[in-house]
Specification:
Blueprint (H helix, E strand, L loop, with lengths): L2 E7 L8 E7 L6 E10 L2 H7 L9 E2 L4 E8 L11 E4 L9 H4 L22 E3 L2 E2 L1 E2 L9 E5 L3 E3 L6 H22 L6 E5 L3 H13 L3 E6 L2 H9 L4 E4 L5 H9 L3 E6 L4 H9 L1 E9 L13 H6 L4 E4 L7 H13 L9 E6 L3 H9 L6 E6 L2
Parallel strand pairs: 4-9, 12-13, 12-15, 13-14, 15-16, 16-17, 18-19
Antiparallel strand pairs: 1-2, 2-7, 3-5, 3-10, 3-19, 5-6, 6-11, 7-8
Helix pairs in contact: 3-4, 3-9
């Protein structure tokens, strides 16, 4: 039986969301019907809502999801009604060679987590299908998610903090722990001290990095970055950030992470690493974006490596329990990441504030009333 749900839909390709009532179908197969208790506002949602993706409108975005399982399909093993869960956008089949090697984030068969063309849509509005992005669709009071994308969480983990963990932590901390495997005593630079960047800074501190350099244009964000573990901060608008990083470290960092999806800062990330260093592009660049690298002086001569990272190379079933343990022990500062809790009707306001650089960290929708 379908449920009526209040949702925020992207219809116009201009980055805006409209509040509408949708119908959410009953769960089939390995699906979970989740009552959404919290969903984070991630900048990538605003990017996608403002792009022509060639997909039929309306789009149901929202991929930082936490809530309670209401019911399950007959193949959703390991979950039951009443479970507290978070849902992440990592879609994986658990059967291909990449999944079986522990690289679920590289799954070769992601569509297997979705319904087929012959099945009823998971969500609809005015008898028209609603495109549920990444299989999560968290900007809705209720949503259907494949069990592979969900992880049970303890009841002592607050929903707002769990929602932030579902993307911001998996991406930012995952880039440090999984992709770069930052070791004790190494040096790190993080460009962009928003929610994902702060998670990376926090993770670098937990990993025992000796120098953790935060780069941002906002002094407010840089101040917060120090609370999360940054040993040095650089305002990128006040001089040559690359030169300052090289001065602090005596030649460049072991690992640099670009979080804000710009050409200029991506080039900086490469050039602020040491000889033999590694740069990681974590932010979601626009389609067609290019980097004018000098192959000899930027890469070959200094023997640097440039890595494209998806979702922090994360395995949610492996990583979420680890991050939960860090949070409950006071090491992972998720409370400070939840900057504002919003009503679903405030979604456009929340994204506008994010675009204007107002506030820091994450805004989270926690009220669908």
């Amino acid at each position: 039986m379908a449920l009526s749900a209040r949702a925020a839909l992207a219809r116009h390709g201009d980055g805006s969301f409209s509040i509408e009532d949708i119908h959410v179908d009953a769960p089939l197969g390995a699906e979970l019907l989740i009552e959404v208790k919290a969903v984070g506002l991630c900048q990538s949602n605003a990017h996608l809502a403002g792009m022509d993706l060639g997909l039929p409108a309306p789009l149901l975005l929202g991929h930082e999801v936490a809530g309670v399982v209401l019911s399950t399909g007959n193949q959703a093993c390991g979950f039951t009604a009443g479970d507290h869960v978070l849902a992440a956008l990592i879609q994986y089949c658990a059967q291909c060679a990449l999944c079986l090697s522990g690289q679920e984030y590289r799954c070769a068969n992601r569509p297997s987590t979705l319904r087929t063309a012959g099945q009823a849509p998971r969500a609809s509005c005015k008898d028209q299908p609603v495109m549920q992005m990444f299989g999560t669709g968290g900007f809705s009071q209720y949503t259907l998610v494949h069990a592979n994308q969900a992880v049970r969480i303890p009841e002592e983990l607050p929903f707002a903090q769990a929602a932030v963990m579902a993307c911001s932590t998996l991406t930012g901390a995952g880039a440090v722990f999984n992709s770069a495997q930052v070791a004790q005593g190494q040096s790190v630079a993080v460009i962009g001290a928003g929610g994902i960047g702060l998670n990376a800074i926090n993770a670098a501190q937990i990993a025992g990095a000796s120098k953790i350099i935060a780069v941002d244009l906002s002094d407010e964000k840089l101040e917060l970055a120090r609370e999360f573990g940054a040993t040095h901060t650089i305002n990128g608008g006040s001089g040559d950030a690359v030169a300052k990083v090289q001065e602090i470290t005596g030649g460049g960092v072991d690992h640099s992470f670009e979080m804000i999806s710009l050409q200029a800062t991506s080039l900086q990330a490469v050039r602020m690493t040491r000889v033999g260093g590694d740069a990681y592009l974590v932010g979601l660049h626009k389609p067609g974006a290019q980097l004018p690298l000098d192959a000899m002086s930027d890469i070959i001569g200094p023997q640097r490596s440039l890595h494209g990272i998806y979702m922090g190379s994360s395995s949610p079933q492996r990583d979420v329990p680890k991050y939960t343990e860090h949070y409950l022990a006071g090491r992972l500062k998720l409370d400070a990441l939840v900057a504002r809790e919003l009503h679903i009707s405030q979604i456009n306001e929340g994204f506008a504030a994010m675009k204007a650089g107002q506030g820091v960290a994450r805004s989270v929708i926690t009220d669908f009333s």
